[in-house]
Amino acid sequence: MNSIYEEALAAIHSVWHRKWLALAVAWAICLVGWLVVALIPNTYESQARIFIQLDDALAEQVGIGVADRKRDIERIRQTLTSAVNLEKVVRGTPIGDRIESPKQMEAAVLALADNVKVVNEQDNLFNITAQSNDGSFSDAENARIAQQIAQKLIDIFREENLAGNRGEMTETLEFVSGQLAQREKELEAAEQRRRDFEQRHPEMADGAGGSMQRLEAARQEMRGVEGDLVAAQSALAAIDGQLGGTPKTLPGASGGAAGSLARAEADLSAMRARGLTDNHPDVIAARNQIAALKGPAAQEERSGAGVPNPAYSTLLSIRADRAANVQAMAARRAALQADIGQFTAQALDNPEAAAEAQKINRDYDVLKDQYDKLLQDREELRLRGEIKSDREAVKFEVVDPPTTPVKPTAPNRPLLLFGVLVAGLAGGAAAAFGVGKLRNTFATTSSLERATGLPVLGAVSQSLTSAARRLRRKRLKLWYAGGAALGGLFVVLLAVEFIQRGMVA
Prior knowledge:
Blueprint lengths: L1 H16 L1 H21 L4 E9 L4 H5 L4 H15 L2 H9 L10 H13 L1 E5 L4 E8 L6 H62 L9 H35 L4 E2 L5 H18 L7 H22 L4 E2 L1 H40 L1 H43 L2 E5 L12 H26 L6 H8 L13 H39 L1
Antiparallel strand pairs: 1-3, 1-6, 2-3, 4-5
Helix pairs in contact: 1-13, 2-13, 2-15, 4-7, 5-6, 5-7, 7-12, 8-11, 8-12, 9-10, 11-12, 13-15
C-alpha cells in the first residue's frame, strides 16, 4: 500500500515539476479541439405530423377498400423520399439557389436524403423529420430551411396523394374510352353487315333479329321452359301425395260412433294412467266397447259423415293452381316446338344463308356484350376516381405543422467543449508524466534504494536564495494565470454558443 502511495506522490511531483510543459500541451490540445468543434455545423431539425383518414363508407361502396388506400399511402410514403421528389424539395428551398450544375444538384439530393425521414407511427399517422446543417448558411437560415423542407414534403405528399391518384385515374379513363370507341366502330360495322344481309335475304329477316337469331332464342327459351315444366310436375306430384294421406273429413266433436269411439279411447287411457292393469274389469269393459265401436265409426267415415277437413280443402286449391301451371308450361313448350320446327325448316331451305346469319348474329352479340361491359367499367372508374379525388381531399389533415427549431439538435457543443477541456488537461498531465519517466531521476529515497539495492542515508532538500524564491513565485503566478486563461477561454466559448442560440430563437 505504501508503494502505491509513494508512486502516486512521485507521479504528482513529476507532473508538478514539469507544469509548464503540461500547461503548454493542454493549451495546444484545447485550441485544436475547440477549433474542430467550432467548425462542426449546427444541425437544426423540424418535425411535422400528418393524418390520413382511411375509413369511408362511400368509397367502400364503389370497391375502394381500406386495404387499397393503405397500399396507396404506403406507396406514396416510400416514394416520397425518391430522388425526383427530393430534387423538387431542393429547388423549392434556398438550397437550390446556390446550385449551378447537375453534379451539385446530385450532391445536394444525396445530402438531403440523409437528412429526411418519413416514419409511419400508426396505420394513418405519419411523422416527417427534416434536418439542415449546411455550413454555408447561418444558424438562423438552417433553422428556416429545416422548416421549409418539412413543409415542402407535406405539399408533395398532398400532391402525390391527390393529384397523383387523379392523374392515374385520368390515364385509365382515357385508355378505357379509347377501347370503347374502337368497340363502337366494330359494333357499327357489325350492324351494317347485318342490315346488308337482311336486304339480300328478306326471308331470313322477318321479325326482329332474323330467323336464325329467333331460332336460337326459341331454343334457349325451350330449355328454360322444359326445366320449369319438370319442376311444376314435381310440385304437382308432391301435392297429390299429400292429398292421398289427408282425410276428407274429421270426426265430430260429440255424438255418433266416431265421437263415442274417441271418448272410449280417452277413458281407457285414463284408466291405464291410474295404474289399472289389462285384467281389471273396467279396462276389459272399455276394450270391449272400443272394439264394438270401431266398425260403426269406420262405416260412418266412409259415408262422409263428420266435420269437413280444412287442410284437405286447402290442398285441393293448391293442386288446382299447380295443375294449371303445368298445363300452361306444356302449352308454351308445344308453341316453342312449333316455332323451332318452322325456323329449322327455313334454315334447311337455305343452309348457307342460315350459317351466314348465325355467324353475323354471333359476332354482333359478342361485340355488343364487350361494348356494354366497357361502358359499365368506364362509368364505375369515373365514379371511383371522383370519390378518390373529392372524398380523400378532405381527409388529409396536418396534425402538427412543421416546427421552426430554436436550438440545434446536434452537435451538443457545450458538452464537446467541456470534453476537449478535460482531454487537454489530461493530455498535458500525461505529457509531463511521460517526460519524467524518460529521464532517469528519482523522486523519493525509497525509489533510489529499490533501484540501486544500496541503503540511502539521507536526502538534502533544495535551498533557494530570496531572489530565487521571488522568481519562483512570479513564475507560479504566471502559470496560474495561464491556467485561468484556459478556463476563461472555455467560459467565453460557452457564452458565445448560448448567445448564438438566442439569436436563432
